[in-house]
From TrEMBL:
Pfam families assigned to the protein according to its UniProt record, in alphabetical order: Mur_ligase_C (PF02875), Mur_ligase_M (PF08245)
Lineage: Bacteria, Pseudomonadati, Pseudomonadota, Alphaproteobacteria, Hyphomicrobiales
Amino-acid positions noted as binding ATP in the UniProt annotation, renumbered to this chain: G121, T122, N123, G124, K125, S126, T127
Known catalytic reactions: UDP-N-acetyl-alpha-D-muramoyl-L-alanine + D-glutamate + ATP = UDP-N-acetyl-alpha-D-muramoyl-L-alanyl-D-glutamate + ADP + phosphate + H(+)
CC per GO annotation: cytoplasm
Compartments where located: Cytoplasm
Coiled coil: none
UniProt xrefs under InterPro entries: Mur-like_cat_sf (IPR036565), Mur_ligase_C (IPR004101), Mur_ligase_C_dom_sf (IPR036615), Mur_ligase_cen (IPR013221), MurD (IPR005762)
Family: Belongs to the MurCDEF family.
GO BP term, example: cell wall organization
Name assigned to this protein: UDP-N-acetylmuramoylalanine--D-glutamate ligase
Metabolic or biological pathway: Cell wall biogenesis; peptidoglycan biosynthesis
Length: 466
């Protein structure tokens, strides 16, 4: 835990008592603050009370007694309208912040030079975060990984030299961290997302920009420049005097890090050098993962990690569970768990990474279905359709893709494994990338992915991927 000492002797309201909210309560209390905990969910309030915190309906309290309102990132700050607790705080002149801001203040107080890597982007931030954490561990750092990827930031160990915090951040978390100042900040990409919480794509992009704009003096801002929003952001950072490292997987750069023919290349001052190779690294297949690897490599180099250590780290990266996770192999058939592919855009990344695919898809359908994936249909040898979306997806595939309605995952795995082996292909892939939510048959994508892994590993002759 990171005790929050910046509010010692003061009273702080915490609203939103899920994982990060309750962690904030513990960290504030450990640092000497009095905490008043609240939530619109009565069950969460009960849990906070059982943990020993004072709970109250904040509507009935005098807000001038509060030094701050610590808001959970899931609670609306601006759109579609501010939560009532935010309006109360603003009316009383009380600052509204989140757990990331509390961390930043503690780091500045106690270890301002401790390495702090912050990652955001519409897509790829979890894989990039996990990859950077892996690289820093390989390089010998005491690595603390958390934030949006899982562990609440204040539940990690405190900042100190030799210890690096590698933190994934959503736009909601950035919005609640006005003094965010990482030593290395990464913005991967910006595309339309979370407009319901930010109002416009322009505002959403502006929130993302704050992570790299806040990089501390002497730090590095790493920006993917394969979309227009990020290209403009990189240019603004340049004009502001920031140290900017551009990355691209689409075009060579005169200055920056880019991917060309499977190699990560660095260009600077007219010189060009290959710093790492991605060929043969199964956990980093596909153009999207090439961007993740380029960003992680830029971060590693900014931290002084050598190219040799970087290459070893890339090769030993196991990947994230449920995201293009290689769960087994039988002969020439590779089994890949991409249960996190819960919409067509995410599934497009997976389909683009292989050529001979036995595709398991379906679940609770989302708007648009799989019509946008038609360009990848020639890669699909056969599709195995499950769940509520099976009939809809069957209609979309029509006669263009051989398919069956398997209905359940166990039937789909059995049939896909048999057909892939019988096809006699050199590199057949049984791919679970559903393009759907899991909620018709599974509580979440993790449970669905775990079930797929168990089914695959129970097949005769399946071996781990090494």
């Amino acid at each position: 835990m990171i005790p929050v000492t910046s509010f010692a002797g003061k009273t702080v309201a915490v609203f939103g008592l899920g994982g990060s909210g309750l962690a904030s309560c513990h960290a504030l209390k450990a640092g000497g603050a009095e905490v008043i905990a609240a939530d619109d969910n009565a069950e969460n309030v009960t849990k906070a009370a059982q943990a020993g915190f004072i709970t109250a309906d904040l509507r009935n309290l005098t807000w001038t007694n509060f030094a701050a309102l610590v808001l959970a990132p899931g609670v609306p700050l601006t759109h579609p309208m501010p939560h009532w607790s935010v309006l109360k705080a603003r009316e009383a002149g009380v600052e509204v912040i989140g757990d990331i801001e509390l961390f930043c203040r503690e780091r500045r107080r106690h270890a301002p030079d401790a390495p702090f890597v912050a990652i955001t982007g519409t897509n790829g931030k979890s894989t990039t975060t996990a990859l950077i954490a892996h690289l820093t561990k390989v390089a010998g750092y005491d690595t603390q990984m958390g934030g949006n990827i899982g562990t609440a930031i204040l539940s990690l160990e405190p900042p100190r030299m030799g210890r690096v915090h590698v933190i994934e951040m959503s736009s909601y978390q950035i919005d609640l961290a006005p003094s965010l100042d990482p030593s290395v900040g990464i913005l991967l990409n910006v595309s339309e997302d979370h407009i319901d919480r930010h109002g416009t794509i322009a505002h959403y992009a502006a929130v993302k920009e704050r992570l790299v704009a806040g990089v501390q003096a002497g730090g590095t801002a790493i920006v993917g420049v394969d979309d227009g929003f990020c290209r403009d952001i990189a240019d603004r950072l340049d004009r502001a005097g920031k140290n900017v490292e551009r990355i691209s997987v689409k075009n060579p750069l005169a200055s920056g890090i880019y991917v060309e023919h499977g190699d990560i290349v660095r260009a600077s001052g007219g010189a060009r050098s290959e710093i790492a190779a991605l060929a043969g690294i199964g956990s980093l297949r596909g153009l999207h993962n090439a961007q993740n690897a380029a960003a992680a490599s830029a971060a590693a180099l900014a931290m002084g990690i050598s190219p040799d250590v970087l290459q070893n780290g890339l090769r030993s990266f196991p990947g994230l569970a449920h995201r293009m996770e290689q769960v087994g192999r039988r002969g020439n058939v590779l089994f890949v768990n991409d249960s996190k592919g819960t919409n067509a855009d995410a599934t497009a990344h997976a389909l683009s990474s292989f050529s001979d695919i036995f595709w398991i898809a379906g679940g609770k359908p989302k708007a648009g279905g799989i019509t946008g994936l038609a360009g990848f249909f020639p890669r699909i040898r056969k599709a195995y359709l499950i769940g509520e979306a099976a009939q809809e997806f069957s209609g979309t595939l029509g006669t263009r893709v051989a398919h069956e309605i398997s209905q359940t995952l166990d039937v789909a795995v059995e049939h896909a494994a048999h057909d892939a082996e019988a096809a006699g292909l050199t590199d057949a892939v049984v791919l679970l990338s559903p393009a759907c939510a899991s909620f018709d048959q599974y509580r979440n994508f993790e449970i669905r992915g775990t079930k797929f892994r168990e089914l695959v590993q129970a097949l005769p002759g399946v071996k781990p991927v090494v």
